[in-house]
Amino acid sequence: MRHWFLLLTAIVLSSACGPTKPASPPTPKVVHDTVTVSVRDPDLDKRVARQDLLMLAKDAEIEDLQSKLEDARAEVVRAMAKLQTVASRAQAASAMAEAEISLQSMKSGAADAPPEAAQATRLVRQSATEFNKQNYAGALYLANQAKTVASTFRGRASLGNREGSRPGEVAFAVPIRLKMTTRGNVREGPGTTFPIAFAAEAGTMLTAYSYADEWIRVGDENGRSGWVFRSLVGRPD
To answer: Which of 35, 60, 124, 160 is the 20 to 30 A CA-CA neighbour of 176?
Structure first.
């Protein structure tokens, strides 16, 4: 019995002292780098550009109305300071007649009255009111303002008639004064595939009348006209 006990003990000790099985190496951790790719949406860019142009138009409308308000205030101050130098009844009547003719010219031949027509109509009515009050200076001033509005409309309309309306073209409510922020090309149509109408230097003053997508229809002080990409122009300082 003792012999079997000693033999069993020897077997156990032999197993415990034998060579150990090597541990498996750790599994390497694979790290995948994440690369962020920015994809531009052309349609979204166009919508943003359109909103920029709409904001530009609204700013111009506010600026135009503010300018007319300041002119009116200055006119009232001058009239109060120089009551002895009022306009004659004949001068006021002549200006009112010219303003009325200009207004009718704007309304004729158009399915929808242009935005300038409402403004000119209001000025003509105000002029008539002042005339009836025998405020001939005020009537003359307001009639001249109506003629100025009509003149602005004629400039925009003549430019549109020369070049024709483009699909998707949207007219600004009032012409906008812009300037070239860098040297660039003014093209015959809204796109780089159209021929170059003329090159404009940085600082060149332009008048904008309408837009199509990201292109703006403009005219310069020399009577030239065409289309310019929106990134090439900005508001005057």
So the answer is: 124
Residue 65 in contact with residue 118, Cβ under 8 Å? no
Q: Which tokens belong to 124?
A: 């003509």
Tokens found for residue 191? 């796109």
- Which pTM does this prediction carry? 0.44
CA distance 86 to 89: 9
Nearest one of 15, 141, 137 to 72, comparing CA atoms: 141
Does residue 87 register a pLDDT over 70?
Answer: no
In angstroms, rounded to a whole number, what is the distance separating the alpha carbons of residues 233 and 203?
Answer: 9
How many angstroms separate the CA atoms of 22 and 184, rounded? 75
Q: Across-strand partners of 196?
A: 187
Locate 16 and state its tokens.
Answer: 């415990």
